[in-house]
C-alpha cells in the first residue's frame, strides 16, 4: 500500500497545538507507516512544542492582524504573500493526502493552498465562537469538526460534524485515582480540596483573587492546590503552607483533577472540554483578553445547561465569596453541576475526528 501523508497546521496557543498533536497521534496509531508534517508560525510556541511531541515542523512568516494600527499590520500583506508562497512549496514537495487545520494564523495560508490544489481539508474548531482563520477557510473545507452546538452560525451546516475537542486520555480513569492523588499531593483525607487553574502562563486576576481570599479558604477548612503559572510563581510561592499548595505547573493534571472537590478555572476551549470529562463542580472565571470574548461564550454554553457557574473578572470583589460559599455549602448544587457537566463530555472526540479524516482518504 502507498504510504499515507498528512499535514497538520495550528498554533499560537496550546489550545490549537494540543488538538493537532492528539489528532496526529491517533492517525499514527491507525497508520504506523504514515508520514507527518506540521506547519506553524515561525516565532510561536509550536516551533518548540511540536518537535517535543516527536513531529517535524516547518515555520511560516505569519502573524495576526492587530486591532490598532501598528507596524506589524503594515507588514501583514508581505507576510501573507510569503506564507502562501512557502505553503505552495511545502505542499508540492510533501504531497499530502489530507491537510488538517486546528486554528491559528499559520493554518490559513496552508489550507488555502491545499484547497486550490484540490487536496481534502478538515478544520477543527475548539471554541463556541469560531476563530477568524477557520471562518475564512470554511467554505472550501471538506469537513468541519466542532465542539459546540450552534456552529452553523459560522460554518456551512452540511459540512459540520459535532465531535467535541480532543482531551487527554488519562482523564478517563480519574475516578479510580483518588488515593494516588491524595498521596501525590500529600492531602488530608476527608478535607475539601479546591483546585485553582489559570493556564500555563498564569492568570493575573485569578492569582490576585486567591491571594485576597487565603484567609477565607483557611477559615472554611479548605486545602488549596493553586497553579499560579510561569509568570507569577515567584511572586506567590511565599504562601506555600500545609493547606495552600503553590505550583508553577501541574505535571499530573489527571491527579490534580482527581484530588479536587471544586475547581476554579479559566474557560479556554481545551480546559472546558477536559472539565466536562472530569465531572466536578466548576466555577469559571473567563479571560476577557481573548478574541471575541470566546472564553465567556464557552463558559456560558455550560452555564445555560446548569453544568457550571461563572463569574466575570469585574464581579470578583463583589460576588466571589457569596457565590463560592453557596456552592461550597450545597452538596445538592455540587452534585447537580457534576452530573450535568458530564453529559456534555465527548470522550471519543479524537477518534471521531480521525474517522472523518479517513472518510476523505477513502473518497
Automatic annotation (TrEMBL):
Function: Cell wall formation. Catalyzes the transfer of a GlcNAc subunit on undecaprenyl-pyrophosphoryl-MurNAc-pentapeptide (lipid intermediate I) to form undecaprenyl-pyrophosphoryl-MurNAc-(pentapeptide)GlcNAc (lipid intermediate II).
Cited InterPro entries: GlcNAc_MurG (IPR006009), Glyco_trans_28_C (IPR007235), GlycoTrans_28_N (IPR004276)
The protein, known as: UDP-N-acetylglucosamine--N-acetylmuramyl-(pentapeptide) pyrophosphoryl-undecaprenol N-acetylglucosamine transferase
Domain annotation Glycosyl transferase family 28 C-terminal: ranges: 193-343
Any one GO molecular function term: glycosyltransferase activity
Membrane topology listed for this record: Peripheral membrane protein
Cellular compartment(s): Cell membrane
Enzyme class: transferase
Record-annotated Glycosyltransferase family 28 N-terminal domain positions: 6-145
Record-stated family: Belongs to the glycosyltransferase 28 family. MurG subfamily.
Organism: Mesonia aestuariivivens
Binding, UDP-N-acetyl-alpha-D-glucosamine: 13-15, 127, 168, 200, 295
EC number(s) on file: 2.4.1.227
UniProt keyword terms in alphabetical order: Cell cycle, Cell division, Cell membrane, Cell shape, Cell wall biogenesis/degradation, Glycosyltransferase, Membrane, Peptidoglycan synthesis, Transferase
PANTHER family: GLYCOSYLTRANSFERASE (PTHR21015:SF22), UDP-N-ACETYLGLUCOSAMINE--N-ACETYLMURAMYL-(PENTAPEPTIDE) PYROPHOSPHORYL-UNDECAPRENOL N-ACETYLGLUCOSAMINE TRANSFERASE 1 (PTHR21015)
Amino acid at each position: 500500500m502507498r504510504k499515507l501523508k498528512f499535514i497538520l497546521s495550528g498554533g499560537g496557543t496550546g489550545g490549537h497545538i494540543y488538538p493537532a498533536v492528539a489528532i496526529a497521534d491517533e492517525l499514527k496509531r491507525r497508520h504506523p507507516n504514515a508520514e507527518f508534517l506540521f506547519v506553524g508560525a515561525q516565532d510561536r510556541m509550536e516551533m518548540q512544542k511540536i518537535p517535543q511531541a516527536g513531529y517535524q515542523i516547518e515555520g511560516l512568516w505569519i502573524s495576526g492582524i492587530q486591532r490598532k494600527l501598528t507596524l506589524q499590520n503594515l507588514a501583514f500583506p508581505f507576510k501573507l504573500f510569503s506564507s502562501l508562497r512557502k505553503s505552495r512549496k511545502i505542499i508540492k514537495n510533501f504531497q499530502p493526502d489530507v491537510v488538517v487545520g486546528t486554528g491559528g494564523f499559520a493554518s490559513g495560508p496552508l489550507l488555502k493552498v491545499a484547497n486550490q490544489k484540490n487536496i481534502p481539508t478538515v478544520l477543527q474548531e475548539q471554541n463556541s465562537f469560531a476563530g477568524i482563520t477557520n471562518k475564512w477557510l470554511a467554505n472550501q473545507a471538506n469537513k468541519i469538526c466542532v465542539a459546540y452546538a450552534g456552529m452553523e452560525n459560522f460554518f456551512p451546516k452540511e459540512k459540520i460534524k459535532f465531535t467535541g475537542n480532543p482531551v487527554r486520555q488519562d482523564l478517563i480513569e480519574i475516578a479510580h485515582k483518588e488515593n494516588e492523588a491524595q498521596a501525590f499531593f500529600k492531602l488530608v483525607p476527608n478535607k475539601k480540596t479546591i483546585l485553582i487553574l489559570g493556564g500555563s502562563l498564569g492568570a493575573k486576576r485569578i492569582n490576585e483573587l486567591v491571594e485576597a481570599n487565603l484567609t477565607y479558604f483557611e477559615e472554611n477548612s479548605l486545602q488549596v492546590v493553586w497553579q499560579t503559572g510561569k509568570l507569577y510563581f515567584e511572586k506567590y510561592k511565599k504562601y506555600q503552607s500545609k493547606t495552600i499548595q503553590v505550583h508553577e505547573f501541574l505535571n499530573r493534571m489527571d491527579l490534580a483533577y482527581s484530588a479536587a472537590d471544586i475547581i476554579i478555572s479559566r474557560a479556554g476551549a481545551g480546559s472546558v472540554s477536559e472539565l466536562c470529562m472530569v465531572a466536578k463542580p466548576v466555577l469559571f472565571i473567563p479571560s476577557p483578553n481573548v478574541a471575541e470574548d470566546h472564553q465567556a461564550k464557552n463558559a456560558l454554553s455550560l452555564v445555560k445547561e446548569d453544568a457550571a457557574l461563572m463569574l466575570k473578572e469585574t464581579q470578583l470583589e463583589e460576588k466571589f465569596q457569596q457565590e463560592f460559599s453557596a456552592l461550597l455549602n450545597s452538596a445538592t448544587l455540587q452534585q447537580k453541576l457534576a452530573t450535568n457537566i458530564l453529559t456534555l463530555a465527548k470522550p471519543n472526540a479524537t477518534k471521531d475526528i480521525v474517522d472523518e479524516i479517513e472518510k476523505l482518504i477513502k473518497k
